[in-house]
Design goal:
The chain is an alpha/beta fold. The protein is 58% helix and 7% strand. It has a five-stranded mixed sheet, with helices on both faces.
Length: 568
C-alpha cells in the first residue's frame, strides 16, 4: 500500500493509522470492507466526520465565554485562482478553523469583508469575541471599523507581524520610501547589500557546476524564499552569514579557478564580494540592528497569548535598535544619529498604525508591569497607571466595556486598588507574585477582590497579537486543494480543511503528542530527529508557536535552530 501509492513513510506514525490497524488486528471483523472511493469523497463519511469533530471541539468552544476568543481572517487564492477568505478562532493558544468564504464574483471591499466577519462573529457569539485580527490592508481596516461600530466591545487589531514585516521591508528593501529622500539616503546601502546577496545566490543556483561546487564546500543549502515570506531579506542574510566560511573556501579553491563559464565577469564579481571584509561587516551590522525587530517578529508569530506583551516588546525593541546603532557609530546616548533617527521614525510610524486600545488595556492589566523588579530593570520605566497615553487609551476601552457610569465607577475603584497595590491587593503574596507567575494565573489567584476587572483580564490576557495561524492554514489548503486535486469544490475543500486542521488541534492537546511512537506525528519525517523527508505541509505546520519542539527536532540534526526548520 505504501509503495504502490507513494505514501509518505511518516504516515506510519499517524495515531489514527496505528489505532485503526491495531483495532483491526485484534478484533474479529470477518466480512468487513473498508470504505470505498465514493463513500470517502462524498458527503456520507465526510459530513459524519465533520459532525464528530464539531462534537469533539465543544469543550474548547465552551471556554470562550469565560476566556474570550479572537477571530482571525486572511485572504488567499486556491489552485484554480478562486479568491478565498479564511476564518479561524483562537483562544489561549488553541487555533480552531471555522470556515472559508468563496469570494468568486465578489468585490472584496470593506463591506463584503465586514459582512463575512459579522456572520462568523454571530456564529461564535459576539459576547465572546474580544478582537478581530487581519492584515493592514485598507479594505481590512475599513471592515474592522465597521465591525467596531456595530459591536463596540469588539476591537479590530492589525496583525503585529505584518506591521513588523512592513518595517523590515522599508528598512531593507526600500518599500514605500521611493519619494522620501532622507530615508533613501540613509538606507540605500542596505538595499545594495540585499541586491548583492541576490546576485551571488542566483549566480550559484543558475550554474550547475557552481552549484555542485557549493554543495561540496557548504553543508547547508541556499534558501529559495518567496518575497511574501516574512523578513525574507533578513532570513537570507542570516543564511549567508552561516555559510560565509564555505563560500570563501569555494571561491579560492582550485576548482573555482579551473572552471570557466560564459559569465567570467560575473564570477569575478561574486568572488570579489565573497572575499570583501567590509561587505561582510556591513552584513553583520544589518543583522545586528535588525535583530531586535526580527526577534520580536518571531515572538509574535505564534499562537500563544502575547497581546499583553506587545506594548512593552515594541518599546524594548526600539531601545535595542538604538543601542546597536549607537554602539556601531561610537556615540553616547545623548548624541544625535541621523541613521537611527530614520530607523526610529520608521518603527514609530509602524507602531502608530498597529497600536490599538486593546494593546494598552492588555498592558495595563499585566501585573508584571507594576512590580518593583520590572520597574527597576530600566530607570525610564513607569507603571502603566502613571503613563498618560496608556491611561487615556485604557479609559476609552473601559467605556466600551461598561456603558453605565455606575459600572465604570466601580471598575475604576478596582483599577485604582490593583494599580496602587492597596485595599485587598496589599497582600504580600499578591505583590511578590506579580513578577514571578504568569498574568492569568495571578488574576486567578489574587483577582477575586476585583471581579469586574478579573473578568476582563481573563478575556484580554489570553489573546494573540497576529494572524499567523490563519496564514499557516493556507498550507493545509494548498496541501488538500493541490494542482493534482484542482477539481475539488470549495465546499468539499473547506470540509476537508476543517477536519484536517481541527484533528491536528485536538491531537496536539493530548499527552500522547509529546511522547511515544506518535510523538510530533504531524511534523517530522521518517524519524522525529530528522527533517530530511518532511513535505511542505509538515514544515509549514512546524511554526514559531512550537519553539521547544522545533529545538528538539533540530538539535540532533546538527542544523541551526532559526534556519532550516522555519526558512526551508
Amino acid at each position: 500500500m505504501f509503495y504502490s501509492a507513494g505514501l509518505p513513510f511518516h504516515l506510519a506514525r499517524n495515531p489514527h493509522f496505528i489505532s485503526a490497524f491495531t483495532y483491526a488486528a485484534n478484533n474479529p471483523l470477518s466480512g468487513y470492507k473498508p470504505p470505498g472511493y465514493n463513500m470517502l469523497r462524498t458527503s456520507l463519511l465526510l459530513q459524519r466526520e465533520k459532525a464528530n469533530i464539531e462534537r469533539l471541539l465543544m469543550p474548547i468552544k465552551g471556554e470562550w465565554r469565560k476566556k474570550g476568543v479572537s477571530i482571525i481572517s486572511d485572504g488567499w487564492s486556491d489552485s484554480q485562482r478562486r479568491p478565498l477568505i479564511n476564518f479561524m478562532a483562537i483562544s489561549n493558544g488553541k487555533p480552531m478553523f471555522l470556515k472559508s468564504v468563496d469570494c468568486s464574483g465578489e468585490i472584496k471591499d470593506k463591506y463584503f469583508i465586514a459582512n463575512s466577519m459579522k456572520e462568523v462573529i454571530n456564529e461564535v457569539g459576539h459576547e465572546n469575541v474580544v478582537q478581530v485580527i487581519t492584515d493592514n490592508a485598507p479594505n481590512c481596516k475599513g471592515a474592522g471599523q465597521l465591525i467596531e461600530a456595530q459591536f463596540p466591545m469588539i476591537i479590530w487589531t492589525p496583525c503585529v507581524v505584518h506591521t513588523l514585516n512592513l518595517a523590515l521591508k522599508n528598512i531593507c528593501a526600500g518599500k514605500n520610501v521611493e519619494n522620501n529622500q532622507i530615508v533613501y539616503g540613509e538606507c540605500s546601502w542596505i538595499f545594495y547589500i540585499a541586491g548583492d546577496i541576490v546576485v551571488v545566490k542566483f549566480f550559484i543556483m543558475n550554474h550547475s557546476m557552481m552549484l555542485a561546487m557549493f554543495n561540496e564546500f557548504v553543508p547547508l543549502k541556499l534558501l529559495s524564499i518567496a518575497e511574501t515570506r516574512f523578513a525574507s531579506v533578513i532570513i537570507m542574510l542570516k543564511r549567508f552569514k552561516l555559510i560565509k566560511g564555505g563560500l570563501q573556501a569555494m571561491v579560492i579553491s582550485d576548482k573555482w579557478e579551473s572552471y570557466r563559464e560564459d559569465d567570467v565577469v560575473k564570477a569575478g564579481h561574486v568572488k570579489e564580494l565573497v572575499l570583501d571584509v567590509i561587505w561582510w561587516d556591513k552584513i553583520n551590522y544589518i543583522l545586528s540592528f535588525t535583530s531586535p525587530i526580527y526577534d520580536m517578529l518571531r515572538d509574535c508569530d505564534k499562537d500563544t497569548p502575547c497581546l499583553h506583551l506587545v506594548y512593552d516588546m515594541w518599546d524594548t525593541m526600539i531601545e535595542k535598535v538604538k543601542m546597536s546603532i549607537y554602539k556601531h557609530e561610537g556615540l553616547r546616548p545623548t548624541e544625535f544619529s541621523s541613521f537611527y533617527d530614520v530607523m526610529y521614525n520608521i518603527l514609530i510610524d509602524c507602531w502608530n498604525k498597529n497600536s490599538t486600545l486593546l494593546h494598552c488595556l492588555a498592558h495595563s492589566l499585566n501585573p508584571r508591569y507594576y512590580s518593583e523588579e520590572w520597574l527597576t530593570e530600566d530607570p525610564n520605566r513607569v507603571a502603566p497607571h502613571q503613563d498618560v497615553e496608556l491611561t487615556r487609551e485604557r479609559m476609552k476601552c473601559m467605556k466600551r466595556y461598561f456603558s453605565s457610569s455606575e459600572d465604570r465607577a466601580k471598575v475604576n475603584v478596582e483599577v485604582a486598588q490593583f494599580s496602587t497595590k492597596t485595599g485587598d491587593f496589599d497582600d504580600y503574596d499578591s505583590i511578590c507574585e506579580r513578577y514571578t507567575i504568569d498574568s492569568i494565573s495571578w488574576w486567578a489567584t489574587h483577582g477575586t477582590y476585583a471581579p469586574m476587572l478579573q473578568k476582563i483580564a481573563f478575556k484580554v490576557l489570553g489573546q494573540p497579537s497576529s494572524s499567523s495561524c490563519c496564514e499557516r492554514n493556507w498550507s493545509t489548503y494548498s496541501f488538500i486543494n493541490s494542482i493534482k486535486r484542482n477539481k475539488i469544490t470549495p465546499q468539499r475543500a473547506e470540509d476537508l480543511v476543517f477536519i484536517h486542521s481541527n484533528l491536528h488541534l485536538l491531537s496536539r492537546k493530548t499527552p500522547e503528542y509529546s511522547k511515544g511512537e506518535t510523538k510530533a506525528w504531524d511534523i517530522a519525517g521518517d524519524a522525529s530527529d530528522s527533517l530530511e523527508d518532511v513535505d511542505m505541509l509538515e514544515v509549514a505546520n512546524l511554526s514559531l508557536d512550537d519553539p521547544e519542539l522545533e529545538a528538539e527536532i533540530t538539535k540532533e540534526d546538527g542544523v541551526d535552530k532559526d534556519e532550516d526548520v522555519i526558512e526551508i
